[in-house]
Every structure is written in structure tokens, then in C-alpha cells.
Fold:
Amino acid sequence: MDASILAPWRDLSIIWLVLLAMIFVAVPGVALFFALRGMRALNRWIRLPLLYAQLWALRIEEGADRASDAIAGVPIQLHSRSAQARVTLRGMIDYLRGA
Structure:
């Protein structure tokens, strides 16, 4: 077979493969483009509700911190007051003993 007889078919097949490759690349590219546009629109739309949720979470965290500090502060204060009373009483006893 002569190579010049198959040359037009070779060229046509190369063009056909290039077109198929362009389609296979273009379809995911277009899909990613619109997915990116959608994600950006979603981010713009959801930004304010997420900020409100973050604000409420910080308020709840602050309230929980205050409550836990108040609860934990009771035994700490009792211990420190007993230590203060013990030191004061020991100082008064040492003073009365004349030491």
C-alpha cells in the first residue's frame, strides 16, 4: 500500500482525536468552572449566617467559662480561707506563748 493513499485518512483521524481530546478536557473544565462559581456564590451567601453562629458560640463559651470559674472558685476560696485562718491562728498562738 502506498502511504499517500492513507494520508487523508491519517490526517482525518488525527483531527478526530484532537477534537475528542478537546471535548474530554473541556467537559470537566466547564464543570469545574461552574462548580467554582457555585462555591463562591455559596460562600458569599453563607458568610453572614456563619458569623452569627460564631458569635453565638463565643457567647456560649464565655458563659460556660464564667459558670465553671464560679463553680471552681468555691473550693479554692474555701481552701485559701482555711489556710489564712490557720496561719492567723498559729500566729496568735505563737504570740500568746511568747515565742
Notes: The chain is about 95% helix and 0% strand.
